[in-house]
Amino acid sequence: MAHAVEIRDLHKSFGSLEVLKGIDFDVEPGQVVCVIGPSGSGKSTLLRCVNLLEQPTAGTVVVEGVELTHRDVDIDAARRRVGMVFQQFNLFPHMTVLQNVMIAQRRVLKRGKAEAERIARENLDRVGLSEKAASYPAQLSGGQQQRVAIARALAMSPSLMLFDEPTSALDPELVGDVLTVMRKLAEEGMTMLVVTHEMAFAREVADRVVFMDGGVIVEDGPPAQVIGAPRHERTKSFLRRVLDPTHTDV
Ligand SMILES: Nc1ncnc2c1ncn2[C@@H]1O[C@H](COP(=O)(O)OP(=O)(O)OP(=O)(O)O)[C@@H](O)[C@H]1O
Ligand SMILES: [Mg+2]
Fold this sequence. Notes:
6-stranded mixed sheet; 4-stranded antiparallel sheet; 10 strands; binds adenosine-5'-triphosphate; binds magnesium ion
């Protein structure tokens, strides 16, 4: 069976700064892959290359058999296959929750109003926010706003969801609700690529954990191996730091 995502020898430079130095990995359909690594290691750049927010300098990205990096590809069509959730929710403040989840469906997918509204309500229900459809973003908690952003991405019927530190901007007591929604999506079989510092989530939900450092993949394997029994010194020292922030041995 085809891989859901296939990344081959992916490079990305900004001017003379080489941020991704040859990334190779696959995600199988329905798999959850968590990407961990220190600040500046290229995690966000990797995700941004997967949905073409950044143009890779070299290498290929194939999503469900379509090579997004092919020069003849329809970039808009390709990008629609991939949903993305960021640290910042980026909801439109002057629109209700329902309108926020409908607008891209209407504008990009050209869905009719009734269909877009039905799909919006289905996905708000999926993230547990049916009763907030008529609210404005400012009336919601950060965790609720992030769940709206997830519903908005899901409403586009993506075949792959990318998450870039979706809980990092949230107060600690709001993190759990967002992770619960992500865990449910994983159980429903959504293919997910998740950059996160939530090691407990990665351990529990990820099929694989990829540890990146300095623009390369240092370790890639099941969470019990990469987090539980890391082989490389760089992975060990990173994990010591995230699992015990008071640890100064870097
Ligand atoms: N648009 C850009 N122009 C120039 N340099 C960039 C750009 N985007 C990212 N970089 C650089 O690329 C490197 C990797 O950045 P990236 O945001 O991918 O790291 P990250 O692993 O996501 O870090 P963090 O954990 O802090 O989010 C950094 O040195 C960053 O300054
Ligand atoms: Mg980042």
